[in-house]
Every structure is written in structure tokens, then in C-alpha cells.
Specification:
The chain has 112 residues and is an alpha+beta fold. The protein contains 5 helices and 2 strands, in the order H-H-E-E-H-H-H.
Length: 112
């Protein structure tokens, strides 16, 4: 994610429940709890979560969320990656990017 962000040179927003993942890619972090901003700052500056946020269980990781989205798209397209009925178009990805992510995540298109 960080490499893509740096290559594009665009402002990006990552919403994550995984503290380590957020800190790995973020320049600045906003911690929100119950719809209210708890902390704002550079990722290294936020060393301890707010006491009210410390007990919140993390949600699924970016990797598991990405895997699920790809698997759902492949199921919906019956394993087709390219073309008008393909998973790449459904996900808004170039087919080569989708294949690369599938390899990285160990997803075999044949199973769909």
C-alpha cells in the first residue's frame, strides 16, 4: 500500500482497525472512537492509544479484507478475471494487478 501511495503521489485515506497496519503506511493518524476524534498526529507521535480506545478489539486485517473482496468477485464472475464480466473490472483493477494480488495472497482462480 505504501509503495502504491508513494508512486501515485496522491493524498490517500486508509481506514483500518489494525493499528500496526495503519502506522506502517500512514504519515498522520486520526484515531476515532464512538464517532469522536480521540487523537490526531504523526504516526510515531501516537505511542499509546487513548484509554477508552485501548480495549477495542481490532477488526479484520487489510489482507483478509482484500482476500475476501477478491474471492467474492471471482465467485460472482465464476473465475473470470478479464473482460466486461471479469473480476478485475468489478474490483476496479487492471487484470495484471488482480493476478499479482491473487499470487501474493495464494488465491487460485481455478477454484472458482
Amino acid at each position: 500500500m505504501r509503495a502504491l501511495h508513494d508512486r501515485m503521489g496522491a493524498t490517500t485515506l486508509l481506514v483500518s482497525h489494525d493499528r500496526e497496519e495503519a502506522f506502517a503506511v500512514a504519515d498522520r493518524v486520526v484515531i476515532i472512537h464512538g464517532g469522536k476524534v480521540e487523537q490526531i498526529g504523526a504516526a510515531p507521535a501516537i505511542t499509546k492509544p487513548s484509554p477508552r480506545v485501548a480495549s477495542v478489539s481490532p477488526g479484520p486485517s487489510l489482507e483478509s479484507t482484500t482476500r475476501r473482496a477478491i474471492e467474492d468477485a471471482l465467485t460472482q464472475t465464476r473465475g473470470r478475471i478479464e473482460g466486461e464480466d471479469g473480476a478485475a473490472l468489478l474490483l476496479g483493477l487492471h487484470p495484471a494487478t488482480l493476478r499479482s494480488r491473487m499470487r501474493r495472497l495464494g488465491i487460485e482462480w481455478k477454484q472458482f
